[in-house]
Structures are given as C-alpha cells and as structure tokens.
Design brief:
The chain is α/β, with parallel strands linked by helices and 405 residues long. The protein is built from twelve helices and 15 strands. The strands form three sheets. The chain has a six-stranded mixed beta sheet with strand order 4-3-2-1-11-12, with helices on one face. Helix 9 packs antiparallel against helix 12. It is elongated and about 80 Å long. Bound molecules: manganese (II) ion. The site of manganese (II) ion (MN) has 6 residues, from loops.
Amino acid sequence: MAFRFLHTADLHLGSPLTGLKARAPELAGLFDRASRRAFDSLVDLAIDEQVAFVVIAGDVFDQDWTDYATGQVFVRGLARLARAGIRAVIIRGNHDAEHVMTRSLPLPDGMAWLGADAAGTVDLPEFGVVVHGMSFKTRVVTENMIPRYPVASPGRFNIGLLHTSLDGRPDHSGYAPCAIADLARFGYDYWGLGHIHTREVVNQHPFVVYPGNIQGRHVREAGERSVALVTVTDGRVAAVEHRPVDAARWALVEVDASGAETVEDIHARARLRLEDAATAAAGRPLAARIRLVGETRLHDRLLADRDRLAAELQAVAAAVSDAIAVERVKTETRPRRVAGPALALDDLDEAFAAALADPALAEEIAADLATLKAKLPPLAAGRLEPDADAVLAAARALIRSRLEA
Ligand SMILES: [Mn+2]
C-alpha cells in the first residue's frame, strides 16, 4: 500500500511583524498576511496532492490570540481539509502551549489536538498508521518528553510528533531536549519534529525531520520556506520532499564590489544579484538585505551617505520588479588606497584616531548631539548618529570621500 502525508510545524499564525513596520512600512504591507496565505497554500497542497492526512508539530499560533480572527483562519483551513476527507493530528509547542492560550474555537470533525497531560495516540486504521504525540503544557518545557511516549504499535506505521530543540542545536535553548539516538532507537517509523525553523532531515533510518517554518518572518529566515511531503510505500518511507508554501520571501543579497570604479558599477552588480533573487522568489513579494563586500576605492563614498546609497539601491530594485523592497543595506566593503594620496590621508586617519581617544572631545560631541536632538523634530532626530564615535567615523568617511573624489 502507498500513501502520502503532509508534515508541517511552526505556522506561527498571528505573528505581528512589528520590527518590519517600524523599519519599512511599505515592506510590512507586502508581507502583511503572508503567514495566513502560506497556511492557505499548505491546505491547497494537501488537497491537490490528495494526502492521506496532515500532522502539525507545534507552534500553530505565534502567541495567545488578541481576538478570534487568527483562530478563524486556522479553523477555516482545517474545515477545507475535512471536506476533502483529510484528517489532521496536532500538538502544541512553546508558543501555543496550553497555559499560553486563553481562547479556543471548536475544531471540525476528524481533527485531533493531542493533550499535554499525557502522550496521546490517534489511530488511522485505513492507512495502517498510528500517530503519537504530546503537547507543551507551559511555555518552557526542559524535561525530555520521550520516556512519556507510548511504545510502537507492532505491524503499524508509527509516527511520533514532538516539539523539541533536540540536543545542542546552535542558538536554541533546551526545549524538550533529547538525543537523535534516543529517537532513532525508539521503534517509530517517522519522527515529525517542530521548533527549529530551518528545514532539515536529521536522520534517515528512521526518518527524523524538521520541515521548517512555512513563512520567513525576518531576514534571518531568508530563502524558501516549505512543508514536508512524505511518501510511504509498503510501510517504509520512500521519499521526503520539501514543497514551498511561503507567500513572501526574504533574501540575503551579497554584492561583490571588488574593483568597482564607479557607483554605477555597483548598481549594475546589485541589479544582477537582485534579478537572481527575484527569479528564485518566483513572483513572491521579496524583501532583500543587500550586503556590499570587497575592496573598492568607493568604500568611503558608500559610507559617507548611507541614505543616498539605500535610495539608489531601492531604485535599482524597482527596475527589477515592483515586488522587491530593500530591507537594509549593509556596507562591509574595505577601502582600496592608491599610493600617492594615501600618505596624506594617513595624517587624517591619525588625527581622527587621536580625536577618538580624547574623552573630553567625546563628551563635548555628546553634549552637542543632545542639544541638537532636543531641537529637531523626532523623525530628523532619529537619523542623527547615535554617539560621538559614530559622528567621528561618519565625518572621517565624508572627508575621505571628498578628498578621493
Ligand atoms: Mn517553538
């Protein structure tokens, strides 16, 4: 017998994206509702591919609902699955733990939300499948939950759902920690994990899989976001495919400015890289962070007026597609000095180094900054350099760019 099922996690419905609104309101508009649309795509995919069932390994919701709208999005999607004869088995993660959520809505028939007091099992006899899983009761669960899971049902395809950071995942504190080896020898056929947002097939015999989240929420979640479509043939996993469902995409676009002689050179190079990112995004709205790297004589010009550079690159992006926003430009180039004028500029650098080391001058600049800030309207004040070091660095870059031009 062969069937397919869909494994997903970390939907984070209701994620507020507040950081984005502050930095780039027009960008927030493009990304508004992206998580909801990604969830709708997930439901479409399950129906189109005629999957046997869907499993969701926690963090369906980003936080407690502020109203019922987020819950309605989820229930409507489940109802579409139910009408197509597709059941879903769900556990709660740290973001939507039992004690975090204060509201709920009735689920459509055939949908099972497993509890947090003990591991639960859902029997799907028509496919020879049992699904085991246990929800988070509170936001932080530091115990290993594996010993509380039931032993495998003999003669069935056993799936375990678990929200976990495993052992020693970089940058993740211990949420329901456990070792891959513990999972591998437990006797289940497939471990459907959640919590880590980057997709990864952690183990193959048996399969232990993070599908990743379905929608990138910031630039650290760049690139395609997807669900796992699992094919089971004669009781064995035959394939795990990653199918994209994200509705908007983040991209890290690195532009090598090495040897660039003019700003137009840099614009042309940025355009090529933005075209690549737009092609990869396949028509989705795209938020790009541009990193300029390499050694160039334009280094100081790039640093001297960051607003101008960002505006120029936004204009370049607009020529590629009207669905690209430049989220931020990071200039990490290195200066290329030419032999002659470099000598004279060394004196300038020395003067600035001395100024930076002078606490009295730093204090004076800080006082001037505070006075200036108090006089400016808030929007303009927000664009002031934050401290004396930043003022001096900007002044140095500006003078160098004028001298080298
Ligand atoms: Mn989580």
